[in-house]
Amino acid sequence: MTSPEPPPEHPRVAEVERLLRAAGAPGQVRHLPDSARTAATAAAQLGVEVGAIANSLVFDVGGDPLLVLTSGAHRVDEAQVAALLGVPSITRATPEFVRRHTGQVIGGVAPLGHPEPIGTLVDVELARHEQVWAAAGHPHTVFPTTYDELLLLTDGTPAEVGRGSAVPTTARAEEIAAR
C-alpha cells in the first residue's frame, strides 16, 4: 500500500511530528488515503490487527479531561475507570470538549501535542503488540509506536480499562485524577 501525496501540512500534524522528533521517537507520520476515525478503518488501511490501533478516547471527569489510549479491540469500561480514579463517574467527552482540551478533532486525537498536559491511562492490552499505531493530530494521519513509547510520550499510567482488570496503585490513580 502506498501513501497518497501528503496534503499541505496541517498545523496539529506538524506539532505532533515536532514533538515526536524532540522525544527521539523513530516513527514517521503516515498520511492515509481515507479518514481513519475508527480503529477498524485505520487497521484496514494499515493492514494490521484492530488491536494494534491505539484509540484515543477523551473523557470528561468533572470538567477535566482524561485521555484513555485503548486497544482498538478493547472497550473502555467507564465505571471501572471511574473507580480506578476514585470519582463517581466519567463521561465520553463532547466533540467541543475534545477540541478545547486537545486542539484536535475526534478521530485524529494524538496522544501528544495538546495545549496543556492531559492525564493519560494507557491500556495494557496494547502491550500485546510489538508495534501499535496512534493518531497523529488529524483523521488522515497516524504514526507507529510501541506500548512503552506511548507511556513515555504521554507520561501515562498503564491500566486495564476493561472488565476483569487490575488497576495501578491508588496513589498513581489519584495523581492522574488530579491532573
Report what the structure shows.
This protein is about 30% helix and about 20% strand. It has about 180 residues and is of the alpha/beta class. It has a single domain (about 10-179), classed as YbaK/aminoacyl-tRNA synthetase-associated domain (YbaK protein). Strands 1, 2, 3, 4, 5, 6, 7 and 8 form an eight-stranded mixed sheet that branches. The N and C termini lie far apart (about 40 Å).
Write down the oligomeric state: single chain
**SSE succession:** HEHEEHEHEEEHEH
**Helical run tally:** 6
CATH topology annotation: YbaK protein
Instruction: Give the CATH H-level superfamily.
Output: YbaK/aminoacyl-tRNA synthetase-associated domain
- The geometry reads as globular
For the record, the CATH class is Alpha Beta
CATH architecture label name: Alpha-Beta Complex
| Share of β-strand residues | 15-25%
The average pLDDT value, as a whole number, equals: 88
Rg over CA atoms: 15 Å
Number of structural units classed as domains: 1
- Gap from first CA to last CA: 40 Å
